[in-house]
Amino acid sequence: MIKSPPGKLLNSRNICPNTVGLFNDINMNSFFEKRLPSPFANAKITDLQLNLNILFFANNGITKVNIYYQCVLNDSGTQRINFYIEYDNSDPLREIEYAMSKVDNIILSKSNALPEFIDLNKPIDIAVFLWDEDPVTSRGTVTTVQPS
């Protein structure tokens, strides 16, 4: 069994997400049909830096996450950066309340993390995934970011 996401750990361990909303089990089940929605990414490229904000849903009480990133090129040359939000969902009692959380101001540039093959003057696909050992709660989404 794979225990941690692919890629490199971003900056430091145990990033503290900000909780921006709470939902109980009844509301989540009726609105999302028993599946947590995929994380959302808001990203822009300015001054040759990728600035990223992530909004995600997980069980309430998750106070720390680790974020991994993986830079890839597909066969057609499209750039993509995969982000994995790793969290521990080991407390079954927390499944009755969910939190909408965000991590702001993730900044990547050539000087701090990006490999040479990533060109910040071209569009980049950003994929964001929740990573838990339980595949039922793992979700992801892809967003294309245009240089400004």
Main β-sheet, spatial strand arrangement: 1-5-6-8-9
* Biggest sheet layout: 5 strands, mixed
Number of strands: 9
Tally of individual helices: 1
Helix content: under 10%
Radius of gyration: 16 Å
Q: What is the count of distinct domains?
A: 1
Order of helices and strands: EEHEEEEEEE
Strand content: over 45%
In short:
5% of the residues lie in helices and 47% in strands. The protein is mainly beta and 148 residues long. The strands form two sheets. A five-stranded mixed beta sheet has the order 1-5-6-8-9, with no helix packed on it.
Describe the protein in words:
With 148 residues, the chain is mainly beta. The protein has one domain (8-145). 5% of the residues lie in helices and 47% in strands. The protein has one helix and nine strands. The protein has one helix spanning 25-32; strands at 8-9, 18-24, 40-46, 49-59, 66-73, 79-86, 97-109, 124-131, 140-145. A hairpin with an 8-residue loop joins strand 8 and strand 9. The longest helix has 8 residues, at 25-32. The radius of gyration is 16 Å and the shape is elongated.
Topology:
Blueprint: E1 8-9, E2 18-24, H1 25-32, E3 40-46, E4 49-59, E5 66-73, E6 79-86, E7 97-109, E8 124-131, E9 140-145
Parallel strand pairs: 6-8
Antiparallel strand pairs: 1-5, 2-7, 3-4, 4-7, 5-6, 8-9
Keyword list:
single chain; 148 residues; mainly beta; five-stranded mixed sheet; four-stranded antiparallel sheet; 1 helix; elongated
